[in-house]
Records
---
Amino acid sequence: MKILVSDPLHEKGIQIFKDQGFEVEIKTGLSPEDLHQAIKGVDGLVIRSATQVNKELLEAADLLKVVGRADTGLDNVDIPAATEHGVVVMNTPGQNSNAAAELAMGHIFALSRHIARGNRGIKDGKWEKKQLRGRELKGKTLGIVGMGNIGRILAELGIGVKMRVIGFDPFLDDAEIKARGAEPVPYEDLLAQADYISIHVPKTTETTNLFSEANLAKMKDGAYLINCARGGIVDEVALCDALSSGKLAGAALDVFEVEPLPADSRLIYADDLTCTPHLGANTFEAQENVAVAVANQMSAYLKGGPAEFAVNDPKK
Ligand code: MLT
């Protein structure tokens, strides 16, 4: 059986497929037309964020049984179309959660102590000691929206620096949120109480624009907002307004409505906004974890085993 790897994958994942007896083709950066050719005769497709698994690709595939995303997000896969074509879609939840939680915590530290702005100032020849007085995290309230794998790890990190941690997650009951390290609160209370809000939910129709102008206005004055989840969950224009009016003290974005972030984006000019280029899962450790996990899961499924971490069930 044949595996096509269409986005970069850690070599340990490739080796697992080979050890399991699969033929592996690595063809990254293909145009849609070339991908439509390359998918012929392929049983399993491994992707990360670049490959778009849409109706056209699924129609071009003749033997495809499984698509595995070596990551968590599945925004680039048309899951209903995959189901229609009898293709299982699976991801590797949890394997890059530590990386994402550590980045969110890094942004929280960086915002509180103006690390990015201090660095930029020095490189521009400025010594902004007086302007960049920071805040300590100890005793402040960290609000986590989404208490899944990443939210749970971030809660531990917050507690580690003596923050009060509150959490909101409509899919978990209060006892489970508590077990994951946060005091459960309704969304509106989290907005009103948190000094720092970090977002860890997938992008869905419910979470798109969750941080709208109206909801940003409900945040505590002088609070900070961190989004290492998905672009589009925060209204970027409203966020810029909340920063320039002083409603929010700062924000950090690792993800954007349009990626890569356009060079003329207003976000670039917001002084109290720290940006990183979608680095949440981008650690050596996480990249190895997701590659090993996706290779094991897909190999098992193609050899007649269970479809672990499948998000659809084409047999239904
Ligand atoms: C994820 O969904 O796991 C990450 O956002 C993947 C990525 O870095 O593109």
---
Amino acid sequence: MTIQDEQRPTLTTEAGAPVADNQNTETAGVGGPALIQDQLLFEKLAHFNRERIPERVVHARGAGAYGTFTVTADVTPWTRAAFLSEVGRQTEVFLRFSTVAGNLGAADAVRDPRGFALKFYTEEGNYDLVGNNTPVFFIKDAVKFPDFIHTQKRDPYSGSQEADNVWDFWGLSPEATHQVTWLFGDRGIPASYRHMNGYGSHTYQWQNEAGEHFWVKYHFKTDQGIRNLTQAEANTLAGEDPDSHQRDLRSSIEQGDFPSWTVQVQIMPAADAAQYRFNPFDLTKVWPHADYPPIEIGRLELNRNPDNVFAEVEQSVFSPAHFVPGIGPSPDKMLQGRLFAYADAHRYRVGINADHLPVNRPHATEARTNSRDGHLYDGRHGRQKNYEPNSFGGPVQTGRPLWAATAVDGLTGNHVAPSHAEDDDFVQAGTLYRLFSEEEKQRLIANLAGFIAKVSADREDIVERAVDNFRKADADYGQRLDAAVRELRKQ
Ligand code: NDP
């Protein structure tokens, strides 16, 4: 049977004209050079050359899935967000998981935080919660973010990640001690995206119908149980199956084994914030559960794979500035920077109409703006007027702010955040260390020492500063790490 006999659709050019021959370039005579009139050849090669868009500078490597968020508790005392307004209410979501430092083709099984970026397609617009698998972060001010990431990425001269740069920066940034302890502990290499928790990490604002506001932190606790890889297991897996996380997520959903997370929030009444023992807007700190117990509010399930990874995962965009009525930002200085940086990254990577793509546009409502045109504008607004105010029945503002106004005082300036009674950069790193089992402490020390020992022999000062931060977190932690690093550097 020939291909023709199968009654298959005709292959066409991008303009829809039938393709006569997709096997042989048109040439001048048999065995001669190609002809410029063979536009199929040039169209295919030119399109292929442009198939990649700039990868994300961070979180380049990811996998995603659609699913459902279901409300399981009454949260109306704290927020008026419509998608959270009644028990049993369901909202479609898209979740993109990622590693942070690696490039697009990097292996999944590496020691690195994991991104946990969630888009709720609500009837009041898309709400994006751009979280991680850890409740804290390395730094607390967005102005340090480009410097921090430069130390994690490739050195301008060597073209590789350099232990000197990583430990120099962390040693000089004591606020990183908590997150670094987390990263080099057992949860630093999750076995898969399904076997880890997600955290909103930042503090956000919720506002209820009465106008009162609260500070809130989100937790997504895996129902699959926490599972991690040791460094040795990860080293093997990264070589044998670089796509391990991506494959695990896709195949579990294909088999109907839908991963889920129990969603919890910690709620802080607004009046508590000023006097709380820690700065509640410091991204390097958690709110201890004893102070603000997690309250279960929902269940997140992933149940549908994307059909096209490029269209739906690579081009999916998230912005922590995508709020809905009843939810807003906090003064967390890392969050404030991200409110700008995420949407800006996507305007550059995907283009000004990124929010029009199927994975990014609202699914439960429609966007009604007066923005128009730009690269790849699809003409969706037709003849509608593109300005406001207008007297042609165009969309109008509500007059009601999405979130509560908060009081500010003092002078503008490059201020250090307000200090609270128990604030320091080490206290919670020490708490986390002491929470680890003896076996986990041993693995933590070995993981840290193995990396610190790679610092150049003539930069003992970098090693000293790095170890000193862990010593300040916990004397036993520092002493054991110091001994392990010295032992390795003798070899
Ligand atoms: P709590 O006892 O109230 O909370 C302990 C938390 O630590 C639990 O959420 C638990 O998560 C998590 N945890 C348990 N074992 C590990 C581990 N090996 N690695 C990382 N996390 C672990 O204590 P605190 O609230 O005072 O927090 C103590 C430390 O726990 C903090 O310094 C922080 O690093 C870490 N932590 C705190 C969280 C918070 O929101 N308060 C959230 C997650 C971690 P699980 O139930 O999933 O086992």
---
Amino acid sequence: MKAITVLGATGSIGLSTLDVVARHPERFRLHALSAHSRIDALLELALKYRPRCVAVSDQAAAERLRRQFVHHGAAIDVHSGAGALEAIASAPEVDLVMAAIVGAAGLPSAIAAARAGKCILLANKEALVMAGDVFLRACREGGASVLPIDSEHNAVFQCLPAAGNRGGIRRILLTASGGPFRQASLEAIESATPAQAVAHPRWNMGRKISVDSATMLNTGLELIEAHYLFGVTSSSIEVLVHPQSIVHSLVEYVDGSVLAQLGNPDMRTPIAHALGYPDRIESGVTPLDLAAAGRLEFEPPDPVRFPCLRLARQALESAGGAPCVLNAANEISVEAFLGGRIRFGDIARINEAVLDELGGERAAQEVNAVIDLDGRARRAARQVMERQAS
Ligand code: NAD
Ligand code: MG
């Protein structure tokens, strides 16, 4: 019986995780769930799945939850405020931590899980992008293990030989759907609306990662994520656009073999893989029917439609603090786009302007320095937007 904490339980990955966990009551016990703003959703999940405790950011929300739990006769502790997420990520009774908070907000709890030696199911790619060295060092020092949840990285992990025998790999091929604007005109992309950008053709995800898929910066962040997870350089990672999202990624070996992992586009597959690892467990995902799928297509990514992909590769190759800077700039530009304050095309321009300004910074070697660099890049992004607006 393994005890699990789900950070970001109300999100798309969090809900899929709870769905898989609930299919295996003999294997998993829910220790804690966290949420940020969707308190009613958290209340409903807690009453349904009965974790030991929950954590929320806001004190008033915590009070409201406590009253509701008393009202429903549910013995569920409520943590809130600074340190609450770290506490549920590092509690001694916890074995597995699903890190599924979106964005830089997920870093401190991921680091806490690493230092406490947990088995981390890592969906929050931003932790690796902004603080790859720091996070991996915390994992080594704490004795934590990391299992990738991002579908591409989970696929690569499944296609790699057992640890300790990593010779003979020529390339990692990360697939990407190309998002909703794969074939759109440059004019249509420039002025795309938030509703168009989040309408992903294959995956049902949170709003931020959906916009990243539309700019293809998601794949850019995934290049950086792959570099840290698998210890490979930029030149051995390639991106392949695959609109059907059935081949989740591939590993090519020096003998010409190419291994791929396939499945329907449903995050419960990588989640179940990591939850059960090394066993295989049921996920609830519909079996893949390749004959019904018919055609599987592949093409190179279009550098003109998707400038963010170039920015990410540039950031990775600069080998310093640039990935952290790019991630922070992008969180600000995507938030402004979703809030209707900038155009879709501005996202790449703002990200590039901030990279030009701060991309030469050295990689931070401590969490506080990462958070400092992240903050400076956010301020720079806001200033670029103010200059554009005036
Ligand atoms: P989402 O927006 O659906 O959910 C985000 C979760 O984070 C929510 O539970 C929310 O309460 C929590 N959260 C948001 N801001 C917070 C803050 N400031 N403090 C504490 N908690 C906060 O996002 P998602 O699509 O589930 O993505 C989660 C992570 O998984 C992201 O890093 C994303 O890149 C990664 N990921 C998602 C998918 C997917 O299919 N959705 C696939 C691969 C990777
Ligand atoms: Mg992915």
